[in-house]
């Protein structure tokens, strides 16, 4: 009964050391929000490492050290995985926003060029002073239809690139989580083996102590002249 109560008490204390592993993930709509989110991720990651270091010190003072450390490591792993997702989302938004800004600038430049071309076409050509002078070649300017087609092609390529990056991002997250799970499984196997060795050692020590106690009792009985009892 006493051992059971001790185990329950230690299990409750270890559970109390667990820290929240999830971070809210609101939608990012501006570059400022993305930058703020990246700053939050850095602070949260530093806090997760500090909390894990503090939890380690607490665990080393407990009886079931390995069990406590495993829970602290799992809490840290979950927090870092969540923060990594937020970091990926914020960086993806910034890259996407940069591409959209560049495309808008190119489209605005195309519209200005088209307006200038239309303005030049509406003006009559200036008369040449010298009839022998050859006219200067007019630089080729793309028509609005051609520029619109190029813009549509760029949009198509950007969407394909975004889809590819999203797939790669999902695969990276899956690979990271798989590696973390494999690492946790390896650590658990190591902890189980340590626990088994510790249990065998304690049993050997208990058996040796019982044998020594029995031998001491027999020696005392013999010294006192009492008849020897059979174990």
Mean pLDDT: 79
Q: What shape does the CA trace take?
A: rod-shaped
Give the helices and strands as they follow along the chain.
HHHH
Instruction: Give Rg in angstroms.
Output: 37 Å
Judged by helices, strands and strand pairing, the structural class is mainly alpha
How many separate domains make up the residues?
1
Helix fraction, binned, reads over 70%
> Ends: how far apart?
27 Å
Largest sheet: none
Low-confidence stretches: 1-24
**Residues in β-strands, percent:** under 5%
Question: Which structural traits does this protein have?
Answer:
mainly alpha; rod-shaped; 4 helices; 231 residues; coiled coil
Question: How does this structure look, described?
Answer:
- With 231 residues, the chain is mainly α.
- The protein has one domain (13-119, 146-224).
- It has four helices and no strands.
- The chain is rod-shaped, with a radius of gyration of 37 Å.
- Residues 31-89 form a coiled coil.
- Keywords: Coiled coil.
- Residues 103-115, 144-168, 176-211, 218-231 have a biased composition (Basic and acidic residues).
- Residues 103-231 are annotated as: Disordered.
In short:
The chain has 231 residues and is mostly helical. The chain has helices at residues 2-16, 31-59, 65-122, 144-224.
């Amino acid at each position: 009964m006493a051992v059971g109560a001790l185990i329950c008490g230690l299990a409750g204390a270890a559970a109390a050391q667990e820290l929240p592993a999830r971070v809210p993930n609101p939608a990012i709509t501006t570059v400022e929000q993305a930058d703020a989110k990246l700053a939050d991720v850095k602070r949260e990651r530093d806090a997760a490492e500090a909390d894990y270091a503090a939890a380690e010190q607490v665990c080393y003072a407990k009886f079931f050290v390995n069990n406590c450390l495993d829970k602290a490591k799992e809490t840290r792993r979950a927090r870092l995985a969540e923060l990594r997702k937020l970091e990926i989302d914020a960086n993806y938004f910034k890259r996407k926003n940069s591409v959209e800004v560049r495309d808008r600038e190119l489209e605005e430049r195309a519209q200005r060029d088209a307006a200038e071309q239309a303005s030049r076409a509406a003006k009559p050509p200036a008369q040449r002073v010298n009839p022998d002078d050859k006219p200067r070649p007019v630089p080729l300017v793309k028509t609005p239809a051609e520029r619109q087609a190029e813009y549509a092609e760029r949009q198509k390529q950007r969407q394909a690139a975004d889809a590819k990056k999203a797939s790669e991002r999902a695969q990276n997250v899956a690979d990271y989580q798989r590696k973390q799970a494999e690492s946790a499984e390896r650590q658990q196997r190591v902890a189980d083996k340590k626990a088994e060795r510790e249990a065998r050692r304690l049993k050997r020590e208990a058996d040796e102590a019982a044998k020594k106690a029995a031998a001491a009792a027999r020696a005392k009985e013999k010294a006192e002249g009492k008849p020897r009892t059979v174990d």
